[in-house]
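Input sequence (224 aa), recorded before submission:
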Amino acid sequence: MSKPLVLYTVGTPNGHKVSIMLEELKAAYGNIDYDVEKINLSANVQKEPWFIAMNPNGRIPVLVDRSHPTAAQPNGFPVFESAAILLYLVQKYDKEGKFKFESGSDEESQMLQWIFFAHGGVGPMQGQSHHFRHYAPEDVPYGKKRYGDEVVRLYGVLDIGLQGREYLVGPGAGKLSVADVNVMPWVRYHKHAGVETLDAFPNLKAWLDRLLERETVKAGVAVP
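Predicted structure, token format:
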């Protein structure tokens, strides 16, 4: 029997954002479950017409909410862009606000600030660092240095944001929210970006270790 949600994904940082969020919601509420469809990127499945109908950008991840069919999408409402998927999930399924903050609050604004910081900075810059270090058809030292240096700078920003805190947003030491889930999978791949150790970023290192100890995170990064 089909589950209410289906995630089209691959085991990348952006894919893991969504699977971790789904596992957190599943553990918190118990009545949320999802199917997984692994997309073969090397075969360009994400460029096929059926996928483009869900995401015109032809990228993973895509979440389809089968519980919300529409006239245009009778098989379920599709959501693309990883951060947008996280926000959709907590807006619709996090009824008690375990992973978000009160609408209109300062904390909600801070959460969105960190989400946009990660979505416009950490992900794109670290993705470019990965590319020039591991996938570029020729050695481009400038590209490696340019994007590697930017990853280090952005990690420094996160380290400042985590000073005296356990999570990025929330009163006191904070609480786990979309802000953390949206960036942690990228930081998890720091070695792939040329940052061999996080010792220069003690707050970031402690935060990453804390998150990686969660059973929900372990389950999420095992998907697909």
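Checked by second reader. The chain has a mean pLDDT of 97.
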